[in-house]
């Protein structure tokens, strides 16, 4: 299965075709793998997420404006579906994927 993947701000804007594989390089089985497995594959192989240091728990995936929850089997996806990737609210640990104009503040600071 190949899917289209598009990122949303504040991630760098990208549109790619993506062929998921497991972390050990094995083929992705949509009957057995979950959305969490897909998130792991994206975080390991998609440069916007990998270079930014994002983890599966930092991102939210959606299909046709509906969230794909981690426990759902990937058989919900069809070849060519468009999956949107965005950061979960409060995800700030992997700020490398953010545009330089985005300021991340842990404390209230007038410079932000």
Description:
The protein is α+β, with helices and mostly antiparallel strands. It has one domain: Roll (Ubiquitin-like (UB roll)), CATH 3.10.20. The chain is built from two helices and five strands, in the order ββααβββ. Strands 2-1-5-3-4 form a five-stranded mixed beta sheet, covered by helices on one side. The relative contact order is 0.25.
The outline comes out as globular
Q: Give the SSE string.
A: EEHHEEE
What would the average pLDDT be, to the nearest integer? 84
Number of domains as seen in the coordinates: 1
Give the strand order of the largest sheet, numbering strands 1, 2, ... along the chain: 2-1-5-3-4
Low-confidence stretches: 95-112
**What radius of gyration results from the CA coordinates?**
15 Å
What percent strand?
15-25%
Top-tier CATH class: Alpha Beta
CATH fold-level name: Ubiquitin-like (UB roll)
CATH homology-level superfamily: Phosphatidylinositol 3-kinase Catalytic Subunit, Chain A, domain 1
| DSSP, total strands | 5
Pairing-aware structural class of the strands and helices? alpha+beta
What is the terminal-to-terminal distance?
43 Å
Count of helical stretches: 2
CATH architecture: Roll
In which range does the helix fraction lie? 10-25%
Biggest sheet statistics: 5 strands, mixed
Please give a quick description of this structure:
By secondary structure, the protein is of the alpha+beta class. It has helices at residues 35-45, 47-52, and strands spanning 3-7, 15-18, 59-63, 66-68, 82-87. The chain has a single domain, classed as Ubiquitin-like (UB roll).
